[in-house]
Design brief:
The chain is about 80% helix and about 0% strand. By secondary structure, it is mainly α. The protein folds into two domains: about 30 residues; about 70 residues.
Length: about 100
């Protein structure tokens, strides 16, 4: 019985991986300029900062593991933005003074 459960679990996991791969491929097909990428990252960074500020503490606080995951996600976004900026892609250099 356990083997059958593992097989069903494996099938579900495989289907999820395939769906995620399809979604990533679809996202890659959307034409975006370098300035659009930089602007999109900055919007996501701002949104993540507001989420952490609102839900990271106080009466609206989310569970600690959720807050830590969002802090990690913020670090990924900021470092991706910095990498693009440091490579001089798009208008990343111009956004540095606005980002602070």
């Amino acid at each position: 019985m356990s083997h059958r459960f593992d097989s069903a679990t494996d099938l579900v996991a495989q289907a999820q991986r395939q769906r995620l791969a399809q979604m990533r491929q679809t996202a890659r097909a959307v034409p975006l300029s370098a300035p659009e990428l930089v602007a999109g990252l900055l919007k996501q960074i701002e949104s993540k900062c507001w989420w952490i500020d609102k839900f990271g503490h106080g009466r609206n606080a989310r569970p600690a593991h959720e807050v830590e995951q969002q802090r990690h996600n913020l670090a990924v976004l900021v470092q991706a933005h910095d990498l693009i900026r440091d490579q001089g892609v798009g208008d990343g250099r111009k956004t540095q003074s606005r980002q602070g």
